[in-house]
Amino acid sequence: MPSWSRLARRFLHSWLALALGLAAMLYLLHLQTIHLISWGPLTPVFMGASRIVDVFCLPFTGIAGVLVHHTGNRHGLLFQLLRAILAGMFYGTLARSVARRIRLRVEEGVSPSRRRLLVDGLVLVAGTMAAGLGGWATLVEPSRLRVRRYELTLEGLPPALDGLRIGQLSDTHYGPYVSAAHIRRAVELLNAEQLDLVAMTGDYVHRSSASIATGIALLAEARSRFGSVAVLGNAEHWRGPDECQAELRRHGIHVIDNDRLFLTAEGLQDHELPDQSLAVCGLGDHWGDVQDTDAALRGVSEGCPRVMLTHNPDTAEKMHRRRPEARFDLQLSGHTHGGQVRVPGLGSPAVPSRYGRKYAGGLVQGPSWPVLISRGVGVSVAPMRLGVLPEVVVLTLRQRRSSRPHPTRRET
Fold first, then answer.
1. CB under 8 Å to 246, separation ≥6 — which residues?
2. pTM, to two decimals
3. What domains does the chain contain, in order, with CATH numbers?
4. Which residue has the higher pLDDT, 321 or 121?
5. Chain CA centroid to CA 375, Å
6. Using H for helix, E for strand and C for coil, what is the string for the chain?
7. Position 405 confidence tier, pLDDT thresholds 50, 70, 90
8. Pick from 22, 52, 281, 284: CA 20 to 30 A from residue 196's CA?
């Protein structure tokens, strides 16, 4: 059995491992500086390098996700570096082994056996399939936007708001991985739905404060009868929350972090009209802000139905522990992206939630109220999706007059 030092020398001497190492460096540089430095005509080179690295790193995403729980920028970089190292070790060792066998056969004139030809053929087929899968996950699936529809009944919803249509736009992540054209396509899908309200649930920018102005301006293209409301996500708090809030307000988008508005048949307003209002509340981000329930429910009567926006679905668990008496009828969140990669039979190997796959996406029952999690428009950490399509959400609210069981639902 070869020693660790010998394995290390094999890895370091492999030309493919060196190539992957250089590509990983480009990848990390691309992550951090694509918006800080103008690369001009070299920008497509950096983007192409990141896609190539992801094709090779895709098989190691699950392992890296288990070893590194992604909870922020620092952990995200560690996750990327670990994937690149694992891929370099595997492909580098494989390439050196294959090259050595070929050299021995050429030098010694050894004819390969049928068994060896079969093994080599299987390795070639497996490598081709892995590359094809990686190409699909990085070049095709992230752009396959869909509209996911839900219909819920809400106790106490005013008759004038029966059939209210809310579009949820989340995790657009404008930046090196998500183009303006992709976000415009998501907004166009929502605009075609003739919505009453657009609810934006955070992470509009990615990696750099330079993405704030354009990333938020794209959201302003969303159209609905009563306008748009928004809360910030962890990405905004990492890149400049005050600037993000100012940009949202400059474009006429109502920011409701730790605040609330009341929706009636006449529109959004600051005070409740008895039996005519739906409270649209917001809580600050679970990672980057505080959650002030008193401020979010200020002036909301006990009988008023309440929809709450907050970026991270884990907030439902946090509120249940800290404020069990607080009541919301529905929570709209994003953040987890459905895990971005879902393996058939195994699910998503890495979901950025303390509660694992529970809050990966869709409508789930939280400890105190139901939580609807959008799988998001863009991508984060790695520019890939596999088995988890990007989406915009269209939610229709129906009136219910009975006592308060779990809301019924219809999902398409």
1. none
2. 0.77
3. 4-141 (no CATH), 147-411 (3.60.21)
4. 321
5. 6
6. CCCHHHHHHHHHHCHHHHHHHHHHHHHHHHHHHCCCCCCHHHHHHHHHHHHHHHHHHHHHHHHHHHHCCCCCHHHHHHHHHHHHHHHHHHHHHHHHHHHHHHHHHHHHCCCCCHHHHHHHHHHHHHHHHHHHHHHHHHHHHHHCCEEEEEEEEEECCCHHHCCEEEEEECCCCECCCCCHHHHHHHHHHHHCCCCCEEEECCCCECCCHHHHHHHHHHHCCCCCCCCEEECCCHHHHHHCHHHHHHHHHHCCCEECCCEEEEEECCEEECCCCCCCCEEEEECCCCCCCCCCHHHHCCCCCCCCCEEEECCCCCHHHHHHHHCCCCCCCEEEECCCHHHCECECCCECCCCCCCCHHHHCCEEEECCCCEEEECCCCCCCCCCCCECCCCEEEEEEEEEECCCCCCCCEEEC
7. very low
8. 284
In 3D, which of 224, 148, 214, 212 has the Cα closest to residue 184? 214
Both structure tokens of 286? 């679970």
pLDDT of 90 > 90? The answer is no
Over residues 270-294, the pLDDT tens digits come to: 999 999 999 999 999 999 899 999 9
Query: How far from 105 is each of 10, 33, 290, CA to CA, in Å?
Result: 20, 46, 66
Two tokens, residue 267: 């529109």
Token couple for 353: 């939630």
- pLDDT category at 250 given cuts 50, 70, 90 is very high
Task: For residue 177, give Cα distances in angstroms to 48, 82, 153, 315, 367.
Answer: 11, 20, 37, 27, 35
Query: What's phi and psi for 27, nearest 5 deg?
Result: -60, -50
Residues 6+ apart with CB under 8 A from 80: 24, 27, 28, 31, 381, 382
- What tens digit of pLDDT does each residue of 25-84 get? 555 554 544 444 445 566 566 666 666 666 667 667 667 666 665 444 445 556 666 777
Q: How many angstroms separate the Cα of 273 from the Cα of each of 170, 183, 210, 280?
A: 29, 36, 41, 13
Q: Give the rounded percent of residues in the chain with a pLDDT score beyond 90.
A: 53
CB 244 within 8 A of CB 272: no
Q: Which two tokens stand for residue 15?
A: 């030309």
Q: How far apart are CA 373 and CA 364, in angstroms?
A: 8
